[in-house]
Amino acid sequence: xxxxxxxxxxxxxxxxxxxxxxxxxxxxxxxxxxxxxxxxxxxxxxxxxxxxxxxxxxxxxxxxxx
Length: 66
Prior knowledge:
By secondary structure, the protein is α/β, with parallel strands linked by helices. It is 33% helix and 30% strand. It has a three-stranded parallel β-sheet, with helices on one face. The mean pLDDT is 95.
């Protein structure tokens, strides 16, 4: 079975990230998927939102905006 990987790079766009993750989760329902978010040192609470609302998402938290 093939697997789909979704990778999102984020920097201080919490609202849009939440909308994107909601859409990805709906679209991937029933499929073998993994979702990764790379957060580039956002100061808007993006990482906290992911941890709270989307615990299945793999989160990489960078210390700087690369």
